[in-house]
Amino acid sequence: MKPIHYFNGEFLHKVDIHISVDNVGFLRGFGVFEFFKAKGSSPIFIEDHLERLYRSAAGLGLEVPLSKEQFRETVKQLLVKNGMAYSSVKIVLSGGPSTDGFTPGPTEVLILNMPFADLDASVYAQGVSLMLCQYERDFPHIKSLYYANAVALQPEWKKQGHIDVLYYKGEYVSEVSRCNVFMVKDGVIKTNQEGVLSGITRMHAIEALKNRWPVEIAPLKLKELLSADEVFITSTTKKILPVVKLGDHQIGTGSPGLVSKAALEVFNAYIEDHLAGNQAACIS
């Protein structure tokens, strides 16, 4: 059965969702979004994603037509209606139909609920590589719809055998197009904070890992990453994914390190504890 989604107050199949050609999200990329996963009817870290959704919208001056409680209830309804064991939820807020092709109309709300599958275990076992690119995102603190640079670079990074692109400016790195970046040196985990999106997975990864390893929050230089013992990236879709190559430069031994492997196990357990806590709260 095809999943049901939500658009401007209605529960619909994708084929029945119609977005105006005058929508400013479509015409100008004016909008924000959030993406998170759910196990059964339990969304993972939804409160943090909703908080960031509101922050992103405020950063663009985009009105949010639903309350957080309405978002929670709508997402819950979708998860129950679709009944998937493991799925993704994507909330999109876009500037609505414009009268002049530039000025936003009333904000439109789209919530997509789709089946989800984690990356194959072999990807984590082998590690991945990233292309390097000098670039600085507009509004890095906002999770906006504007990904033109990354989309344009995708054919090139695929051609070179990479899975994504790591942005840097001068001597400092910022973030991967859809992930935050961490490094490990002499048993210390380090990640940056300024000029990058405040990743929800990043935030929870720090919380999960800090009791086992020292975690330092500071700017990251490209030369630091290239000489790191290990590098890994974090995101909703990838969780904690080891990086074994940056451009044509091998990281560490060229294989996922012990910290990266253990960090994924710790984070997986952290997510299960989070879900168990939510279920217990619902029962009580």
TrEMBL record:
Which pathway or pathways does this protein act in?
Amino-acid biosynthesis; L-valine biosynthesis; L-valine from pyruvate: step 4/4; Amino-acid biosynthesis; L-leucine biosynthesis; L-leucine from 3-methyl-2-oxobutanoate: step 4/4; Amino-acid biosynthesis; L-isoleucine biosynthesis; L-isoleucine from 2-oxobutanoate: step 4/4
Q: Tell me, what is one Gene Ontology molecular-function annotation carried by this entry?
A: transaminase activity
**Record keywords:** Aminotransferase, Transferase
Among CDD domains, the record links this protein to: PLPDE_IV
Q: Which domain of life is it from?
A: Bacteria
Coiled-coil residue windows: none
Q: Which Pfam families match?
A: Aminotran_4
- The enzyme's main class, written as a single word, is transferase
> Catalytic activity, per the record?
L-valine + 2-oxoglutarate = 3-methyl-2-oxobutanoate + L-glutamate; L-leucine + 2-oxoglutarate = 4-methyl-2-oxopentanoate + L-glutamate; L-isoleucine + 2-oxoglutarate = (S)-3-methyl-2-oxopentanoate + L-glutamate
EC number, UniProt record: 2.6.1.42
Q: Which family does it belong to?
A: Belongs to the class-IV pyridoxal-phosphate-dependent aminotransferase family.
- This protein's name: branched-chain-amino-acid transaminase
